[in-house]
Design goal:
212 residues; Chalcone isomerase; 6-stranded antiparallel sheet; 4 helices
Length: 212
């Protein structure tokens, strides 16, 4: 038979074989249910608990930047031209696909919102902030459909970033080429501008036209 210590609840009948009341509220907010001691919270305590949870959550959020800091300048991958890989570029809209037989490549050109607005408006010159991305894959024959080519191994990603002042010497465009997440060397980047300047000067130095 369960016994209840007298110092915890002196009002209970402690004679052996006598069960306490089904529910008895003792001192200091202690409630007894069939000899089990249950802590009873006051209305004040109940109001404090949600507030405490909010405070803890806010403190935890304040510490997130210390445990998960933003990428530092040293961690941002940049091409020799200063062009970096834009965040979220894989969610940009498609400008047009293309292929090169001499390189056996399939390509897709994407544009950020600024570039897409200019293309849809048929603007001859892109405004500052426009960025075009080119994703290139090795072209391979499909194993599921005859006379069809599909993207194979990813080869590189390239970007054209418009900033008329910063890139005044290259038609207002900065060029960035990245292979396996790292930038190509300066010599390879040096081939970009002459190609665009010599071939598509009349289209703001951009090869790709918007595929409607």
């Amino acid at each position: 038979m369960n016994r209840v210590a007298a110092f915890e609840c002196p009002a209970l009948d402690l004679r052996e074989g006598v069960a306490p009341n089904p529910a008895f509220r003792g001192a200091r907010g202690v409630v007894w249910y069939n000899t089990r001691r249950v802590r009873h919270r006051s209305e004040k305590e109940n109001s404090i608990r949600p507030l405490s949870a909010i405070v803890v959550a806010l403190l935890a959020a304040a510490w997130i930047p210390f445990f998960f800091p933003a990428a530092s300048a040293a961690e941002i991958v940049a091409a020799p031209t200063g062009v970096t890989i834009p965040k979220g570029y894989r969610n940009w809209q498609v400008v047009a696909p293309s292929q090169r037989d001499d390189k056996n490549e399939i390509r897709v050109i994407l544009g950020n919102n600024i570039a897409m607005r200019a293309l849809r408006a048929k603007r001859l010159h892109f405004p500052d902030g426009a960025i075009l991305a080119k994703l290139a894959w090795k072209r391979v024959a499909s194993t599921e459909f005859d006379n069809t080519f599909v993207p194979g191994e990813p080869l590189r990603i390239e970007f054209m970033e418009k900033d008329a002042e910063k890139y005044a010497d290259t038609g207002g465009w900065g060029f960035g080429r990245f292979v396996n997440g790292g930038p190509a060397d300066e010599k390879e980047h040096g081939t970009c501008w002459p190609c665009h300047e010599g071939s598509v000067k009349g289209n703001d130095f951009v090869f790709t036209r918007y595929a409607r």
